[in-house]
Amino acid sequence: MKSPNKTMKKTLAFLTLAIAIGWSQILNAKTQTSEAKPRIEVCFVLDTTGSMGGLIEGAKQKIWSIANEMISAKPTPELKLGLIGYRDRGDRRN
User: Fold this and answer.
1) Domain that holds residue 9
2) Do 88 and 43 sit in the same domain of this protein?
3) Is the Cβ–Cβ distance between 40 and 49 less than 8 Å?
4) Does residue 42 come out as left (phi exceeding 0), alpha (psi in the -120 to 50 range) or beta?
5) Residue 52 and residue 45: Cα distance in Å, rounded?
6) Closest CA to 44 of 74, 78, 76, 79
7) What is the DSSP string of 24-79?
8) Whole-model pTM?
9) Are 50 and 17 in the same domain?
10) Same domain flag for 13 and 25
11) How many domains, the chain?
């Protein structure tokens, strides 16, 4: 007959190994998940010259719409956004 102490040690060793393997798989899954996160870098360029006068507001709304769509994508992306507004020489800053 096996001693209770020896059986307990084997059981503890088995449980320790099982827990270690479980944690290893969990950590590996988290690493793979973070690596799978898409990276998006977008820079919008907006013509703010006088000829765009009545269209600028609509263009700004469309930029916001596109940006919000990217932010709400699944899986959630790592997102970097930029905006460049260009004008004619002599145009005022608003």
Assistant:
1) 1-36
2) yes
3) no
4) beta
5) 13
6) 79
7) HHHHHHHHHHHHTS-EEEEEEEEE-SGGGGGGHHHHHHHHHHHHHHHHT-SSPPEE
8) 0.55
9) no
10) yes
11) 2
Residues in CB range of 4: below 8 A, 6 or more apart: none
Ramachandran region, residue 90 (left: φ > 0; alpha: ψ -120 to 50; beta: rest): left
pLDDT tens digits for range 62-83: 999 999 988 898 888 999 999 9
User: What span, in angstroms and rounded, lies between the C-alpha atoms of 92 and 43?
Assistant: 23
Percent with pLDDT over 70 in the chain: 68
For residue 94, the model assigns a pLDDT of: 58
d(CA 37, CA 74): 9
| Predicted pLDDT of residue 44 | 92
